[in-house]
Amino acid sequence: MRCRQCEETVAGGGCTRVGVCGKDEELAGLQDRLVGALVDLSVAYGPSDDVPAEVDDLITDGLFMTLSNTNFDKTAFGTAIGDAEKALGPTGSSGGYVFSVDGLDGIDDLRSLKEILLYGIKGLAAYYHHARILGGEDPEVPSFMRKGLAAMPARLSADELIALNMECGAAGVRCMALLDGCNTGRYGSPVITSVGTGAGSNPGILITGHDLRDLEMLLEQTRGTGIDVYTHGEMLPAHAYPAFKEFGNLVGNYGGAWYRQRDEFESFNGPVVATTNCVLPPRESYATRLFTTGVAGIEGATHIPMVGGRRDFGPVIEMARSCGSPVDIGGGDLLTGFAHNQVLSIAGTIVDAVKSGAVRRFVVMAGCDGREGGRDYYTRFAESLPDDTVILTAGCAKYRYNGLDLGDIGGIPRVIDAGQCNDCYSLVVIANALAEAFGTDVNGLPLSFNISWYEQKAVLVLLSLLNLGVRNIMLGPRLPEFITPGVLKVLVDAFGIRANSDVITDMDILGIC
Ligand code: FSO
Ligand code: SF4
């Protein structure tokens, strides 16, 4: 195996014997076979708009399954490979392609550009999956996924691959806008919300991941049962949607970012529903309490299938009744819900604060969190920021600083949390509105980017920002293993990207000091 798709990979070549994430060689092989079959499907069908929806669903969901920390269930991969090969049948054009980093055509730099593209498409698949679940559709997105996947075995020049990566970023912006419309269309526009993190005495169910539809079904089925529902990780922003505020049984958030789940799922005491990444192979202490849905999978955990557009959370509810209540692990109240609609409603106040000098600079610190020790960089960075700066965040990266008491500037909180990682789209809408108000472009604003990356959705968000013309992004806590020095030079020359390294130096570079 060789996998280097996430930030946690082994330096100097990637995970080759076993994944830091827990993925073994057999699972890595199955994932490569699945990606290969989806590439074959994409070559067979091409980027045409006239492709059966089932084929695009196979590509979308299959790719999502291969994202870091999403699915560790070999049986599920066997089924997905079988489905993809069956779909290929009538086309008669299966090449039996098996994806492998080493097998990518081209010298190192071309391989690197293909990897960036593949991981961006995986992120795209994740967001398109969420939009599809809520009834969203945009034929341009799956069409690009097929076009981009078909590039994997092709002989393409560096310029062609760079163009495809930019196209991936454009598809990312479209897809995040689509998902934003689906989320707000069904659940309303988020409003600023303070979310408690304590634990009550009722039995509880913990739901983690990004799937709001699963949360909706779980809340409907637990209403009136005396069982409390808590969010975890990337599900925290759900509290800000008006539709979820109607559920008295959605009582709060429990725990922090995904990498703390082994301790937090243990102390929660009740069943845990993992709807997407990041879910990890469990400790024995809570393995029987772990349930998965959708593309998520863990060997030994009970998977709740979608049958006729509905999931039956009966077994989860039944288990909750026999479990003790969660152990209170504290954490204080967390603010969320600063999506574009809410922030733009106070745009006048924000513009005035900038003009008066009360707010000197905004710093986008969105992205993913991870378990490496060096990630306390982001906590130190947030703590070291001058009092007249405001952090704009989205994604699980926020857990590094959303518990800090950074105060506010004339009523504007110093940490503005737009929501899940896909809600980076909200940050783009906010930045564009500010740019318009100040008669400049995004790069002309007092706005710096210090992004934290971990998995492939973050690659898509990065490509989307580059496609929008954002320059001088600081990226960390270390640069991707799959970016070669040659490709890095292109990114530095064209976009001013650099690795973050030192809180004080970086602040200087970003123009904050
Ligand atoms: Fe985090 Fe995991 Fe949202 Fe990612 S929970 S790391 S970018 O899957 O999806 O921010
Ligand atoms: Fe390694 Fe990340 Fe791949 Fe897991 S997903 S095998 S940690 S690179």
| Average predicted local confidence, pLDDT | 96
Uncertain regions spanning at least 5 consecutive residues: none
CATH fold group of the largest domain = Rossmann fold
CATH architecture of the largest domain: 3-Layer(aba) Sandwich
Main sheet overview: 6 strands, parallel
Largest beta sheet: strand ordering = 4-3-2-5-6-7
Total helices: the number is 18
CATH C-level of the largest domain: Alpha Beta
Radius of gyration: 22 Å
Q: How much β-strand is present in the residues? A: 5-15%
Question: Strand tally, please?
Answer: 18
N- and C-termini, Cα separation: 45 Å
Sheet/helix structural class: alpha/beta
Shape: globular
Topology diagram in text:
Elements: H1 25-45, H2 53-65, H3 74-88, H4 108-133, H5 140-150, H6 158-187, E1 193-195, E2 204-208, H7 212-222, E3 228-231, H8 242-245, E4 250-253, H9 261-268, E5 272-274, H10 284-287, E6 290-293, E7 302-304, E8 306-307, E9 310-311, H11 314-321, E10 334-336, H12 340-345, H13 347-356, E11 361-364, H14 376-384, E12 389-393, E13 408-409, E14 412-413, E15 415-417, H15 424-437, E16 447-452, H16 456-467, E17 473-476, H17 485-495, E18 498-499, H18 503-509
Parallel strand pairs: 2-3, 2-5, 3-4, 5-6, 6-7, 11-12, 11-16, 12-15, 16-17, 17-18
Antiparallel strand pairs: 1-10, 8-9, 13-14
Iron/sulfur cluster (SF4) binds at residues 3-6, 8-9, 14-15, 19-21, 23, 68.
